[in-house]
Write the structure tokens for this entry.
Amino acid sequence: MSNPRQTNVRQPRRSPDRSAGFSLIELLVAVMLAIFLLGGLFAIIQSNKRAFTSQTTLSQQQDNERFAMTIVSEVLQSAGYFPDPTAQTSNALFTVLAPYTSAGQVVAGTSGGATGDTITVRYYGSPTTTVINCDGSQANVAQIYTNQFSVNTAGQLVCVMNGGLPLPLVDGVSRLDVLYGVTTQPNSTTTSIDTYFTAANMAAANWPNVVSVKFTITFNNATFPPDPIPGVGKAGFYRPSVTSSPSGPAGIAASGGGANAVAGWACGLCAAVISARTSVR
């Protein structure tokens, strides 16, 4: 017999079984989010890789620029050197010998070539000298040394010592331009430069009076491809950037167009021009 006070106890409703997994829409959303995140991560990695490669390339090119300026400046500053001015004279040591057209002339050059100019200097060596040649060796033999700089068709700055084989110094060079600082009044009380000439405009009488040389080396930007059409630039990219660094006998001192002796890069340029002025007497 049932108890009238007894009430039916409602059984709790069982929740639906959730062990069936994710729906197709949920999976698609998860996959899309993962692809988006991986794409962003991949883009960051690629960007960092390009930046690292670009910085490494530019660093190497700046090293080449510094080396080119240093070696050319060092050799040009040695022009006309001889160890014993009490027993030797410039006219007696440096006689007329092609390409030098007068006694005492220690600088010669050409201009107007497809890759720019050439410059040749000579000096007299000594066992005790610290003068270096363009190949890095010391001029430690009592003889005349000649060093010539030019740019070949392979885009290399090269030097030729004592008429030997061309020695490549740096790559990525398009041209070399040289101006010669001349004292046109050598008999005056001052040796200040009053005129700069190209080699083509130099009179024969001016060559013995060269006291300074301004050289400009144009480098290709290694981070940009070469012109698709020779001589025709790609709009917006193929413009030169110029940094000038005059120097005297003491060495290169930054001034003029920039704070460093190497070219700076601006606006994504594909050419860099470095320029220096150095004493040769």
